[in-house]
Amino acid sequence: MAITDTAPEKTLFGHPRGLTYLFTTEMWERFSYYGMRAILVLYLTNFLLLPGHAENAIGYATVKHIFESLFNGGQPLAVQPFSSLIYGNYTAFVYLTPFFGGIIADRYIGQRMSVIVGGITMAIAEFTLMEPSLFFIGLLLLIVGNGFFKPNISTQVGNLYKPGDSRIDRAFSIFYVGINVGAFFSPLVCGTLAEDPAFGYKWGFFAAGVGMVIGQLIYIFALRTLPKDRVERSRGTTETKKPLTGADWKAVIALILLCIPTTLFWATYEQQGNTINLWAEQFTNRALIPGIVDWQIPVTWFQSFNPFMIFAFTPLVVGYWANQARKGKEPRTVIKMALGNFLLALSYVIMAAAAYLAPDGHASWLWLFAFFAVITFGELYLSPIGLALVARVSPPQILSAMMGLWFITSFTGNQLQGYIGSFFSRMDKVEFFLLCAGLGLLAAIVTWAFDRPLRSILEGEGGKPNAVVEPQGSEVHPAQ
Fold first, then answer.
1. Residue 462 — very low, low, confident or very high, per pLDDT cuts 50/70/90?
2. What pTM value is reported for the model?
3. Which residues contact 31 (CB under 8 A, 6 or more apart)?
4. What is the mean predicted confidence (pLDDT) over 169-187?
5. Among candidates 141, 114, 143, 146, which has minimal Cα distance to 128?
6. pLDDT at 181
7. CB–CB of 454/260 below 8 Å?
């Protein structure tokens, strides 16, 4: 909902001043999130879950018992499978709690207070992770805090603009650059500290906490530049919603069907921070130029490849689509999404080839470079395109609910991702990566099969033209 104030607008670089503050707040919050994520699996497998440490973590026995009962037939879980399930459930629930956090903000405490509550909670959580015995409490606080923060920071970008303001699309593009800036630098800072024997993992978490504090201070300072919350603006007004038509319900069903293969996409894509991280640590020759420059690339730095490539590849992809559009050959939305899934599958074929051809079990880091390049193209073909599709065809009466449903694919996908990743240490690596490739291929086939039956619903009877949507980031989901 747009602002209604009549006071002259104060701008910075052609946009409301509040955009700069929201951009910076999001950048630091993503720095905190991706910094912690870059070291999470390494921390679990190399320290916390090892004998002598695990028993001291509050809730360890309970969490392990639950995961063994649900995912391993009651049998004991080894360190790597257990760490994968922890990682998968953590990254899953950070995409579920925002649904409830958005409801609480809309109905009760407002967006601004929600961001403050969520930010403070997440900062406390990062510092809590520095103490191994409080690890599971820290994870829980991160999940809860993220639920308040995530859905309410990006919503405020739209509130800065009046209805019909053409700057709003550019504003979201600018805002989501913050995601990639934070995602790129955080592994370089938090990961470097965590891998340095002079510091260790707790200082990686500390750096993530500092990033969250900085972002929160910037946001609090920015409050005077932000418009009123939706809760305040809607007081005293009534809203009537039209019932859904038959065409509306067809659109809803079409989007629900597309959620199925999209879940498989996230289940394999999100292995980056889990099993791909372990591959970089245990099975990769990280010497920059073997035999010439033997400096070892830190394991966590590979987590910066994807956000960097987002910067590099986005103009290429958007320009390519524009060129196709001029020739009348731009693929339909669902076909683009199918191609994204196919590229995802291809990226894991590359990893299978690396595992098969690796001498002495250590593949060149250039295989990972190729993997990240291909999977990034796949991401750009699917994630922002899916978001644009949801925004375009969802009935306006339930747009927020449908967007929330789309984000649920990240929840279910990450749940599946953790379970799939638990087989990394129990399977031959070639077979494991081919399994991931197979899931990506299955998602591509299912998505492609949906194109013809859903075409009239999603593109319009006359073939509604695709809009060239600029992909937004390594975490391209808007509330992400």
1. very low
2. 0.85
3. 182, 183, 185, 186, 189, 208, 211, 215
4. 76
5. 141
6. 87
7. no
Residue 14 burial by CB count (10 A; 0-12/13-18/19+): exposed, middle or buried?
Answer: exposed
Please name which of 129, 323, 108, 313 lies closest in space to residue 209, comparing C-alpha atoms: 129
How far apart are alpha carbons 125 and 139 in whole angstroms?
7
**How is residue 60 written in tokens?**
């360890």
Tell me the C-alpha distance between 23 and 275, whole Å.
31
Cβ neighbors of 328 (< 8 A, separation 6 or more) are none
Q: Smallest Cα–Cα separation from 276: which of 184, 372, 358?
A: 372
DSSP helix/strand/coil, 82: helix
Nearest to 31 by CA among 105, 119, 139: 119
CA distance 180 to 265: 20
Q: How confident is the model at residue 13 (pLDDT cuts 50, 70, 90)?
A: low
Domains of the chain (ranges, CATH numbers): 15-234 (1.20.1250.20), 245-480 (1.20.1250.20)
CB–CB of 316/425 below 8 Å? no
**β partners of residue 15:** 12
Please, are residues 448 and 118 in contact by the beta-carbon 8 Å criterion? no
